[in-house]
Structures are given as C-alpha cells and as structure tokens.
Protein 1
Amino acid sequence: MKYSRQEILSKKTVAVVGVGTIGTVTSALVNKLGVNLILIDRDVVEIHNLENQILYAKEDVDKPKAIVAAEKLRDVNPRIKIESFCEDLTFENIDLLDKADIVLDCTDNLETRFLINDYCLSKNKPWIYAAGIKTKCTLMNFTGKGVCFRCIFKETTGLGTCETEGIANQTAIAVGSLQVKNALQILVGETVDEEMLRLDIMTSKMEKIKVQKRKDCKACAGEYEFLEGRKGTKAIKLCGKEIYQIKETVDFNKFKKDNSYFVTIKNITLFKDGRALVKAKNEKEARSAYSKLIGN
Ligand SMILES: [Zn+2]
C-alpha cells in the first residue's frame, strides 16, 4: 500500500532543540508540515528577544521559551501534537529525543551539538545543523552515512562559548527555512547531500563545501564521549546576555506556588529539574544571589 506524503508526515516526529532566533522560525515552519513536534529549550524569554524571535510577545517575558512557543504553535495548528520541555539537554535527559525521527539543531553552542551528534550516530537518526552570525549562516545534514559533526569541529575550539554578535532576522529566516526544507526531504525518504552549505544573505552568495571524514574521529569510531557524559562541562553563562545557569540539588516543591513548572524569585527563575537561571552581572553576583534566595 502506498501512503500519501501527508499520511507519512502525520506519523513522523520532529524535535527542535533551541527555540531562539533560528528555532522560532524552524518550529513555526515545522508546525505547518503536519508532523508531531518536540520543543526543547533551557531559556526564558527576555525583552530583547522580542526584536528577533518571531514567536514571542511582551507578555511572554520571563516565561520559558519552550512552553510559550508550544502554546503559540498550538494556537496556529491545533491538530498537531506538541510536547515541550524547558530543560537543558544533557546526556542525562537526551532520551527526550527518542521519539523523534529527526533532530533539528537550533542551539547556540557546540557542546549540545556534540551531544546531538553522538546521540544521533548511536541511534542512526538524522539531524540537521543550523547556525548563523549576522548575515552569514551554515547548514548541514547529517544522516549517519557520511561525515559527522565531530569530523569537522574539534572540541577544543570554542567549547562552552557562543557568539554574542547575534544573527540577523533575515539570516535566521533563510537558514530556518532551508533546514525545514531539508527535514521534509529526509522525512519523506528523499536523498539529501551531506555538504556544508554556506550562505551570506548580504551578498546572496551561496556555496557548498565537500567535507572529508576525519580518520581519527572518535564519534565515527563509536566512542561517544559526550553521550556518556565523559566530555563537556556545562557553560554556566548563557549566550550573549547577563544570565547564569546554576544547577544544584534543590527541592523545587519548597518554592513552587501552584502546579507550575517554574517559579520566579526576584532575579532567579527556578525550574522543576532544579535548574536556576539567575540574572546577574557576573558569576560571583549570580552565585551570591542564588545562595541567598535558594540556599546551598
Ligand atoms: Zn566523525
């Protein structure tokens, strides 16, 4: 029996990791495909996000992005199933991706990408990398057949750091829509290339680069250091803003007021998983506010 394209898609699940500037574009477009959707993001909406993250409005400030994005997308397309997780994706909760047929990377850091790479290689699951700075963006499909992300990026450079320059809205829309186009092709079983696509929307110049598999790549050899939690120290400073993430063992129930998944205490947002986001000028100030208001 031959299934229609829409029937095939209705049985598929797409995970979008990171619902920021690129991720809001990607998830809004995925939402129209008629697939099931999983949204994961560790962050809350900040006032300056309203300038470039298309799903958020003034009343969403200080609320978790994953939750707000899911609500908005359900409004637009109530027929599809959306699960959202306000969590920091780590090797400990990576099974959040188990239901996904494809993972769309819209994160802002290499460490999570190494983790996604390990996970997808181990599960033989495709994923698509998308990144951008200002007017330039990069996109690449990883289907597990060719080169992997760790063949290209050495973990020693830039781990835990991220760009503070930001990505132009038009760039995010360009790379997000290409990412979803490629995802659609993969989901319906079409063959996609595994070359690195680079686009500068300022010059409209697009190039594709053939990338070689690295002979000594550990991930390709089945050594999943990030998935096993052997590599990677979680950067405490989140990207491009004065927000620090602190993760300690905390009794969330002690602080929560109702059935909510997060609670705001002055400049701290505390989540169910014990994670706290602290608005502060530096790490010292963040730590001190944390110990005063939360304890430890
Ligand atoms: Zn590799």
Note: Residues 169-187 form the longest helix (19 residues).
Protein 2
Amino acid sequence: MKAAYYTNKEQLELVELETPKIGWGEALIKVKYTGICGSDLHVYHGAHPTAKFPVVPGHEFVGELVELNDSSVNDIKIGDTVVVQPFFSCGVCEPCITGNDNVCQELKLLGAHCNGSFAEYVKVPAKKMYRIPKDVDVKLAALAEPLAVAVHDVRRSQLKVGQKALVIGGGPIGLFIAMVARLVGAEVYISEVNEFRLNYAKDMGFKTLNPKDEDFDQQVKTITNGKYFDVVFEVSGSKTGAASMTKLAKISGMVVIVGMAGDNYPVDLMSVFTKQLKLQGVRIHTQEAFAAAVDILVSGELNDQLYKLISKTFALEDIKAAFEYMHTNTDHFKILLEV
Ligand SMILES: [Zn+2]
Ligand SMILES: [Zn+2]
C-alpha cells in the first residue's frame, strides 16, 4: 500500500508498505480522508515526548471498513463508513478497567507509537470504530477526532449554560473547543494574537480578545464584571498562555490544560492556592466523548462551522507540498489529505 512514512526526525518519504495484517479484536480501514494535526508535526520535528521512528503518522481519519476480526462487533458491517478513536489500550490496567482507557498505562497512539492513517490502509482496534451514516459528508467526518477532543475538554471543564469561558489560542483545537462550549450555552471568548485567526474567530461569531492590546486586562474586567472567567481553556501550549491562565480564571474557577506544555512552564501556583482554582488536565478523549462527537456530526448541528474549518485538501501523494504549505503559511486551519 501507499503510505507516508517518517523514517526519522524530519524525514518524510512516500513509500510502499505491506498492507497491515489484523489479529483478533482488530479491523482494517481503507482511508478516505485524513486530517493533518499539530501533533503530526510535533512527531515530524521529533518534539513529541514518546513517539518512535519509523512511523506512519496520522490519527484523524474517516474510511471504509474492509476487514473485521471481532465477533463482538455486530453493529458495523464490511463496506460501512467509519471513524475511529485512534489508540490501542491494554484493557487490564486500572485506568482501562475503570473506563478511562485514554490514560491507559500502555497507551499506543496511532501515528505516534504505531502506524497511523497517512496511508491507504490502517489497522485499528475494532471496538473503537463508530459507524457514519451515508448522509453525512465523509469530508466532515474526518473532523470527528478533533471534535471529540473538544467534547472531552468541555465535559471535563464542567462548563455550564450562562457561564463565561475563555479559550487561549485560536487555532483549530481552540475553535473546536469554542464551538462545543457555545453549544452548551456558554458565552465564549477567544484570546489570540494572530490577526488571521482573530478575524476567523470573529467571522465564526465568537467574541475575541488580543492579549497584546494595552488595555487587555481592562477589557477582561469589563467583560466579566471584574470577576474573570468561569472556565479558562489553555490551548496555546505557550509559556505566556500558561503564565496568564490562572490570572484570567475567577475565584474558584476552572483552568483546563489542553495545549501540550514543555518543561519549566511558568504556572502561578500562588494564584491556584489563593483563588482556590481547579486545574484540570485532559488527554485525548474518552469513548463517551467520541460517541458524543459522532452524534453531533450526525445531527448536523455544527456543520456550517465545521466546513469553515477545512482550509485545504491535498492528495496523499502531495503530502510534502501540504507540509511545506503548513510550515510556510500560518493562515490556515484544518488541512486534509485525500487518500
Ligand atoms: Zn489530532
Ligand atoms: Zn490500560
């Protein structure tokens, strides 16, 4: 099969690989569309903490079920269109048996620890497939995985209708979170410095803030009646985002850590103490959150907004051009590969 392959750090090749063979509990998917995620670029640059080379990247995809070796899966048939929660978990560790297999001790992420979806075929855990009805646009279904990330993050934030939420970082995941936060009835603000992203967020109907504005703090106080935000999502993964997130949350508020942080991040723990804040980590998504994301897709509720997030589609063969585009042009959101 045709596949994009990271042979080593910053070494991307288009190669012929053997089509994966599936064992019990596994399924083979013929990939149709697959999104390029920030974390695929992290792996490429050798910046992912645990990814191994060589590897086929990619974990956001939609495709057709072509082979199934699991008799317990009977709601999905060969030929169905499916999306997949893209990781293997051990099934026996404490997180796994308590329903939290997204933090399994032996977690293997597709596209980082085992071969992913930038290929004609990908091997997946059969239990992690979700059927997509024929009337859903397959291109939109390729967004199920990042949408599930947002559903998981908003659920863990305990954000409620009528509350004010701030999303620090208006990239693709920031916008997905903002969309889901708005869906639960919150008033959502996006904080971003990049003009293109600010305009995009405004165009999608979100209120925006630019932390570089001299009167940023005054703006926040005015918006929140001097109380700051009920929930702050730190999605930027930047040191400035980490330094400001605790200041921007109200007393007894919630800060959700979404962006992948590096070492020595400047978190103001004194604020966590004096304001009695809650700090919530979030990793990937639970099965519950993934199922909810699929329901949202099927409902069509967010379709207009989701279409706006797809900036460009490249053929898998043109993956080098797609990477080049993403590295030289910051003015884009989701880039898809068509396989
Ligand atoms: Zn992703
Ligand atoms: Zn486990």
Note: The radius of gyration is 20 Å.
